[in-house]
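quick q for whoever's on today - can somebody do inverse folding on this one?? i tried earlier but teh output was garbage lol. tokens:
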């Protein structure tokens, strides 16, 4: 029976691939990867700088710990676009970076995998909090995030043979619900900090049975009980949108000996090295990358963001390397990338970088497998940034979503109008930081986007005028109204479904994770 199910699935994947190729007869996807210092307005400046260069078909943006990444794809036109530099034996050299505004920019092209199913009728979406009270990332946090991502990707690839659809760290935890003496009439909902040391993930479910969900949930619950993490599952009941969570396990704050600090360093992270891995989307790619990192005990993951855009997998990790400062990392990395013989493959490039840093692999660590699903991936590393603690507890998370028809201005139109609305309503245009953003194209020539902005809570003072409406609700309602007015005045057609809310579940029902 299992073989029969696999056969039917393969036929369905093949049919989908044929449809995708017929609808968009291209074999390459051009993309850009921007690694830059996280600062206010960087994304807005990037997408509005030059309409010819800044238009992204689909976009992923993440910023934390003082470093940010912006990834954008463009469907390649036949006989046009970036040419791939490939050796006759199949080896591809590492991409030399271009310096831009204190960061590095990489331009390349790759082949998509049209058989990869990003959208699934059923998904398993979870949220695991490692240390919600942490105000800064320590060395042991990086090791805990690395190991947790490995467990999540292993559950997807090896346990249920399914795609890992998205990955995000840090992430916002569910709302805090307070009552007085358990009296529901006194129920009060308080927004959690904009971001916490937690990993949010989504896995596609090929087997949609209740038994499969319970089996997967039990695996993560046992993991959280072992290490002292809290665990939530997305509420899949009818009428409950994305952003509603059901608590499965609540940790008491006591970590396992492995991560309590007596065996691992409590020293805070000194530097973050952004590394983005890109290649055809396939099951097991994230698991292969993180399993390789586990061979190096000094290397942790301070943050991550992963998804699939245009059937291409983008796995972004912020590596924290114990005892290595940012300036030393950049000197060694710049020299390595300047060499024409430097490989682009994840394992090869990282192995050479760690070797030059004097980091030997742990002989007792996990062995490297012969079948590597990232053997044709590209690696874009650097520059390293000095770690900067995020002040998310002092910020309010404001979620926004939109829909726009494909056009030459792309993300620039809705984003620029949003910043104008923030400046008009709360003088917060220069204070808002895009902490997470995802734009995805649909088959109806429509691009749908969702973003989480971090806005200082001090902005709320001007909306505390009494009454029953919360200041955060007043802010969001006024920004949404001003955003719509700015779009109308801009003359850009095809922008619709604009939503602003301080709760993710109040966004449009179609928004993506």
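ok took a stab at it. sequence:
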């Amino acid at each position: 029976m299992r073989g029969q199910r696999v056969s039917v699935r393969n036929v369905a994947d093949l049919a989908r691939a044929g449809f995708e190729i017929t609808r968009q007869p291209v074999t390459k996807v051009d993309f850009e990867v921007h690694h830059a210092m996280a600062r206010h307005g960087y994304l807005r400046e990037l997408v509005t700088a030059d309409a010819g260069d800044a238009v992204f078909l689909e976009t992923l943006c993440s910023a934390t710990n003082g470093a940010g990444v912006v990834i954008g794809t463009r469907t390649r036109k036949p006989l046009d676009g970036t040419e791939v530099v490939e050796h006759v034996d199949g080896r591809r050299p590492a991409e030399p970076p271009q310096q831009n505004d204190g960061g590095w920019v990489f331009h390349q092209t790759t082949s998509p995998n049209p058989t990869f199913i990003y959208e699934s009728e059923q998904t398993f979406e979870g949220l695991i909090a490692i240390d919600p009270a942490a105000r800064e990332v320590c060395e042991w946090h990086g090791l805990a995030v690395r190991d947790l991502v490995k467990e999540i990707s292993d559950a997807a690839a090896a346990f249920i043979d399914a795609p890992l659809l998205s990955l995000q760290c840090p992430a916002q935890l569910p709302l805090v619900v307070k009552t007085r003496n358990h009296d529901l009439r006194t129920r009060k909902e308080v927004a959690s900090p904009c971001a916490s040391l937690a990993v949010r993930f989504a896995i596609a479910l090929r087997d949609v049975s209740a038994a499969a969900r319970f089996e997967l949930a039990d695996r993560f619950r046992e993991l959280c009980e072992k290490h002292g993490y809290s665990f939530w599952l997305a509420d899949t009941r009818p009428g409950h949108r994305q952003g509603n969570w059901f608590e499965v396990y609540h940790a008491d704050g006591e970590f396992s000996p492995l991560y309590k600090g007596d065996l691992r360093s409590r020293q805070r992270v000194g530097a973050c090295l952004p590394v983005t891995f890109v290649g055809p989307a396939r099951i097991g790619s994230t698991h292969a990358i993180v399993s390789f990192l586990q061979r190096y005990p000094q290397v942790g993951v301070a943050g991550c963001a992963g998804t699939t855009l245009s059937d291409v997998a983008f796995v972004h990790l912020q590596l924290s390397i114990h005892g290595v400062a940012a300036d030393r990392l950049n000197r060694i990395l710049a020299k390595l990338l300047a060499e024409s013989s430097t490989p682009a493959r994840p394992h090869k490039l990282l192995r050479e970088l760690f070797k030059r840093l004097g980091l030997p692999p742990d002989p007792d660590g996990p062995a490297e497998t012969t079948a590597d699903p990232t053997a044709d991936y590209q690696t874009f590393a650097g520059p390293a940034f000095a770690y900067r603690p995020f002040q998310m507890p002092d910020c309010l998370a404001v979620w926004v979503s939109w829909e726009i028809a494909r056009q030459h201005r792309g993300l620039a139109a809705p984003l620029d109008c949003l910043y104008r609305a923030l400046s008009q309503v709360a003088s917060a245009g220069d204070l808002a930081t895009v902490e997470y953003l995802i734009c995805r194209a649909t088959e109806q020539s429509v691009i749908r986007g969702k973003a989480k902005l971090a806005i200082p809570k001090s902005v709320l003072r001007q909306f505390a005028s009494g009454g029953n409406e919360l200041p955060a609700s007043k802010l969001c309602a006024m920004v949404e109204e001003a955003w719509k007015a700015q779009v109308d005045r801009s003359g850009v057609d095809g922008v619709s479904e604009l939503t602003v809310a301080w709760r993710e579940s109040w966004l449009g029902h179609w928004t993506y994770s």
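fwiw DSSP finds ten helices and 21 strands in the chain. also Residues 1-6, 17-23, 76-90 have pLDDT under 50 and may be disordered. so keep that in mind when u check it
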